Amino acid sequence: MTKSMTAFARESSTGDEGELTWELRSVNHRYLESFVRLPEDLRALEPAVRERVAARLGRGKLDCTLRHSPVPGMGGNLRVNQHYLLQLLAVASEVGRITGQKVEPPPFDLLRWPGVLQEQQLDLGPVMKRSLALLDEALGSLVATREREGGRLAELIQERCGRLALCASRVRERMPQVMADVRKRILDRLEDVRAELDPNRLEQELALLAQRLDVDEEMDRMEAHVDEVRSVLSGNGPVGRRLDFLMQELNREANTLGSKSSDVEVTRVAVEMKVLIEQMREQVQNIE
User: Fold this and answer.
1) Is the terminal CB of the chain with fewer CB neighbours within 10 Å at N or C?
2) In the chain, what percentage of residues exceed pLDDT 70?
């Protein structure tokens, strides 16, 4: 299925660990390039995030942002390091014995002493697990959006493929008249000296001229490329690079047609073809 590279997805979830929100934004890019922004305490998730992104997306520049709003009081609990505090009190008592002065440190001064208060480490396992599960949902939404937009792009390209095929048919229908007009113009110009010319040589020259003006091969290749574009659009997996190459080939045939043209109508059709191809090329730039 054809996929666009431009999409946005946002998924949120609230649980015992607080509120988690993923925002994913993707735009067109030649390769897959991911920028991951995570809360500092969840930085360890980055390798798993990149792995999941690479498994779901083929091309595009992707911004992944995770926001975590913990519930109040979710931080690690504070506790007193009793062993260390007893050591401090013992030292204070020893100082008082040596100096002959009673030393009784205020409790809040003791709490400010480094190492007396310790924060128990929070178990981040549950929040990490839920973050990855939510990321899978966000990636699913992003891919679905890319598929919908890709379907619309494919329809636009298919429509222009049809118009391009009609242009090729118009050129084929027009070419016999073009050849007849060219032959008549040449013979009219040579009317005064035709009696002096070798008829066989004249026919050979006219045949060579017709061969140089003939565009059947170009139209055959044009129609073959159009059929290939349609086939690629119906395939699976990333197709953008293949389509980009086909746009170059279509443009080459349209340029050749224009350079060979000696007829105003055929020139108009060649210009119309180039416009259609450029419109398709712009759409293809956004296809994965």
Assistant:
1) N
2) 84
